[in-house]
Model the fold of this input.
Amino acid sequence: MNGKDELMSVPGAERMIWFWLLAAIILMLNPAGSSEYPFGSKVLPDDSDIGRPLFALPANTVIVYWDIGTPGYDESDPVYLHMTSAGGTISANDVRLTFLNNFSAGSKVTFQDLDMNKPVKQLPSAISFLNSYGSSAYDLNDPVYIPHSAL
Done:
């Protein structure tokens, strides 16, 4: 017997393979279940989101960090786009701007996540770009940064 024959001799194996295949296809086609573009990618002229309406974030949206190491901000502290006025704790729908354990940058915090309700501090910063090509404005190939400003 080869590996395929052994797998197919397991009761219901063929049905499970079809189930997982269908689930993967649904997740790929469902815009709520996956993103068409990687987090942090730039919009290109042929992208499907060109021309779609944009909405301003809430006025009190700030960049914060969870101080998990030595006191004060350092490279081990996860950084978030704090989307609510829920005060000084991480809230559902805050966006992780850095990697944390198994959570990738760009993922949203949910109620059951380990960082939910953890204390945060505002990170003095501004969204900026590096003018790599010497023009007078932001260009597609200019990298974007969120530099930490000293207090």
